[in-house]
């Protein structure tokens, strides 16, 4: 059992937890993730490790489906049944020169530890984070501390640049300040757009993929993606890949496979506040 030692609501339905897992905390590196399960019948949820200390790992998640809504109902002192990790390949970190780190929405969470590692390696780090509105923006202060310069965008113009993260990246290039390395993490359409901006200029561009994942060991094959025409498993070969080689169309289609079932599960979920009890609503 893994105890939740801290819970912070970063924005509506987005939470930051510290979970006591000292063995994972000591070994984790930027870019790696855990898979957790709340109970015996629970779904296995992959979540990036955002940070750690000697005793705990920090995770950030958004309440989207049934399992993340259940996770969001827990509090300090509650326990998670299983936490497995660190999983996945760590981010390749070197001094590229100038690095642009781009986070869209909840994707800012996995970008943070990578930006910190790139800066520690001597890179000049320019970070761009975006959200639909100001209220949905997360980790602004943390990203500012990890960057030489931080740029903020919102779709509705409520904060920072009125527009998209790709417009800031395009301006860098148009102004003759093309970076040596680009990292993009966020919704799949955003990552594809980032890769398309950098592609004509042959800028190394890495993206962190988020397919459906089950066991996290490469055995089930659920997280398969096509990279440069070859099948890869995100859980063991990734989660980061060259964005110019990713078959984003296939990734989008596979991620839509269970939308109907996911929607039904959320609709049927009834939470009895204060009782820590979940049950399905009457049919």
Describe the structure.
With 283 residues, this protein is α/β, with parallel strands linked by helices. Among the domains are: 2-88, Elongation Factor Tu (Ef-tu), domain 3; 98-208, Rossmann fold (3-Layer(aba) Sandwich), CATH 3.40.50. Helix content is 27%, strand content 34%. The chain is built from nine helices and 18 strands. The protein has a seven-stranded antiparallel sheet with strand order 6-1-2-5-4-3-7, sandwiched between helices. Strands 11-10-9-8-12-13-16 form a seven-stranded mixed sheet, with helices on both faces. A two-stranded antiparallel sheet has the order 14-15. Helix 5 (165-174) packs parallel to helix 6 (188-198). The radius of gyration is 19 Å and the shape is globular. Mean pLDDT is 91; it is low at 271-283.
Concise structural overview:
The chain has 283 residues and is α/β, with parallel strands linked by helices.
Annotate the secondary structure layout.
Layout: E1 2-11, E2 14-20, H1 22-27, E3 33-37, E4 45-52, E5 56-62, H2 66-72, E6 79-80, E7 82-87, E8 98-104, H3 108-120, E9 124-131, H4 140-145, E10 149-154, E11 161-162, H5 165-174, E12 181-185, H6 188-198, E13 204-208, E14 224-227, E15 230-233, H7 234-237, E16 240-242, H8 248-255, H9 259-268, E17 269-272, E18 277-280
Parallel strand pairs: 8-9, 8-12, 9-10, 10-11, 12-13
Antiparallel strand pairs: 1-2, 1-6, 2-5, 3-4, 3-7, 4-5, 13-16, 14-15, 17-18
Helix pairs in contact: 5-6
């Amino acid at each position: 059992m893994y105890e939740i030692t801290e819970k912070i609501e970063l924005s509506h339905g987005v939470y930051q937890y510290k979970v006591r897992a000292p063995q994972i905390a000591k070994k984790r590196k930027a870019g790696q993730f855990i898979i957790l399960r709340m109970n015996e019948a629970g779904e296995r949820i992959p979540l990036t490790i955002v940070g750690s200390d000697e005793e705990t790992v920090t995770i950030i998640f958004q309440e989207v489906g049934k399992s993340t809504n259940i996770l969001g109902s827990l509090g300090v002192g509650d326990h998670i049944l299983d936490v497995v990790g660190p999983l996945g390949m760590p981010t390749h970190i070197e001094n590229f020169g100038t690095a642009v780190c781009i986070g869209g929405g909840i994707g800012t969470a996995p970008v943070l530890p990578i930006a910190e590692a790139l800066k520690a390696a001597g890179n000049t780090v320019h970070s761009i984070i975006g959200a639909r509105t100001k209220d949905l923006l997360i980790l602004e202060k943390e990203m500012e501390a990890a960057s030489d310069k931080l740029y903020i965008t919102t779709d509705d113009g409520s904060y920072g640049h009125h527009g998209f993260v790709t417009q800031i990246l395009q301006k860098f290039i148009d102004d003759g300040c093309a970076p040596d390395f680009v990292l993009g993490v966020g919704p799949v359409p955003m990552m594809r757009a980032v890769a398309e901006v950098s592609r004509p200029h042959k800028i190394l561009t890495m993206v962190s993929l988020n397919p459906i994942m089950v066991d996290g060991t490469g055995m089930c094959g659920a997280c398969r993606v096509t990279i440069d025409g070859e099948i890869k498993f995100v859980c063991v070969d990734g989660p980061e890949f060259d964005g110019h080689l990713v078959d984003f169309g296939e990734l989008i289609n596979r991620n839509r496979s269970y939308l109907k079932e996911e929607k039904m599960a959320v609709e049927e979920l009834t939470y009895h506040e204060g009782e820590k009890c979940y049950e399905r609503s009457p049919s």
